[in-house]
Amino acid sequence: MSQIHNEQTKLLATGLNNVAVAFVVIGGVTPVTALSFGVANAPKLSVGTIAFAAIWISTAAGLHWIARRILRSLLP
């Protein structure tokens, strides 16, 4: 039973970490890429853009932290 618990725990942590990676892409990579390519509808570098990126990246860091905490419950 402990192997099943461990695998389910790892799957949950992996899923949360994948969502965290998606948040980094949405909030960090996408605005920077849009700015660097000069996309017409891209937001200009402003306090709002920086706050947008900071919120998404902070949320990603929180999700990653939760995933790490979940992994601490692995059984020996």
UniProtKB/TrEMBL annotation:
Q: Which UniProt keywords apply?
A: Membrane, Transmembrane, Transmembrane helix
- The regions listed as transmembrane in this protein's record are 12-39, 45-67
According to UniProt, the name of this protein is Amino acid transporter
Say which species the protein is native to.
Methylorubrum populi (strain ATCC BAA-705 / NCIMB 13946 / BJ001)
